[in-house]
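pls design
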């Protein structure tokens, strides 16, 4: 692989002079802030809300370093992982000229963000076992291919991609390989962040929305070389993560023991729910999962989905997604929620039996 980061960056981004926020123009500590045109009299919503947040989230990044293998200079904190995805397109892809590769079925925002940025999308479907077609991906690369997106554990299928296939792509692709690890905390493997020093073209996405139970505050991470993170910080809005969100994540980091317990309970419930679902007559297959959901292929999947809606239970109908015909994606809930789901599915079977009689 011949990797030249600078040659991949859009010309207008190379020379971009980022916005200089008031809070980024002084060093040291201060007691009186008269630089950012804030309301100095406080906020009825609470202490500190009248002040702009740290634009580079330094305290939060320092805490994140405690449980990752990276330096603060290798961490981008964004308004969800979706912001990081969009920034990668804006940094590396010229609209109407460049392209990316995605491997469906996968997370839909890769294609949505590509479409928004006028970047062509090549699709290389997963195999029938929901694994990467590494040969197919490599054969699809052209001189215009700037980004490849891999989701592992994959959404909506739940499985990890074979690590050797991901590493092979990182080795042989001279563009940016993006590995989305939103569900990595539910998987019994080490994160690909351990490979960052080896692959300067690798970007790993993670999030506080899943295992960390902070979906409502919208905080995601990109972990990569300091050079790539520097580009992302240059292009992002100055105050992209609110002070409220930063503090909320700092608070949950203090309760990592609780997070570990939630993950363990989720995994136990995933096993229980999978076993219960396997006894349900319409179920054809329950796919192995390394995430906090299971993909289930069923007879009459759409009919079952509508039945559950009537029962006030919402799952995700993935029947219209490539390779997922007849599949429902079921998030692992609390023990009571999972039991209610099973009871509702049993009711569906009874209703059908009575209808036949």
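designed seq:
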């Amino acid at each position: 692989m011949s990797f030249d980061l600078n040659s991949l960056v859009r010309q207008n981004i190379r020379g971009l002079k980022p916005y200089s926020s008031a809070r980024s123009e002084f060093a040291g500590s201060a007691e009186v802030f008269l630089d950012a045109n804030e309301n100095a009299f406080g906020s009825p919503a609470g202490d500190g809300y009248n002040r702009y947040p740290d634009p580079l989230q330094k305290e939060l990044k320092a805490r994140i370093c405690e449980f990752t293998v990276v330096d603060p200079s290798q961490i981008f904190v964004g308004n969800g992982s979706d912001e990081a995805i969009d920034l990668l397109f804006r940094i590396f892809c010229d609209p109407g000229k460049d392209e990316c590769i995605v491997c469906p079925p996968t997370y839909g925002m890769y294609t949505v963000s590509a479409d928004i940025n006028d970047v062509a999308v090549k699709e290389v479907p997963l195999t029938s076992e929901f694994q990467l077609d590494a040969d197919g991906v490599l054969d699809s690369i052209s001189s215009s291919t700037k980004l490849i997106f891999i989701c592992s554990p994959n959404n909506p299928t739940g499985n990890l991609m074979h690590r050797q296939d991901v590493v092979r792509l990182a080795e042989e692709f001279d563009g940016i390989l993006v590995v989305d690890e939103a569900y990595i905390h539910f998987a019994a493997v080490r994160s690909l962040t351990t490979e960052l020093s080896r692959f300067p073209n690798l970007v790993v996405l993670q999030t506080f929305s899943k295992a960390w139970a902070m979906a409502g505050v919208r905080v995601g991470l990109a972990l990569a070389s300091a050079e790539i993170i520097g580009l992302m910080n240059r292009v992002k809005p100055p105050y992209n993560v609110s002070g409220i969100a930063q503090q909320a994540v700092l608070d949950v980091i203090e309760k990592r023991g609780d997070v570990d317990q939630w993950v363990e309970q989720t995994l136990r419930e995933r096993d229980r729910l999978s076993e219960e679902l396997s006894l349900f007559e319409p179920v054809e297959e329950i796919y192995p999962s390394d995430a906090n959901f299971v993909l289930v292929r069923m007879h009459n999947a759409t009919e079952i989905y509508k039945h559950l809606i009537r029962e006030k239970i919402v799952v995700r109908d993935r029947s219209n997604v490539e390779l997922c015909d007849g599949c429902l994606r079921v998030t692992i809930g609390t023990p009571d929620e999972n039991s209610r789901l099973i009871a509702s599915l049993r009711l569906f079977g009874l209703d059908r039996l009575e209808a036949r009689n």
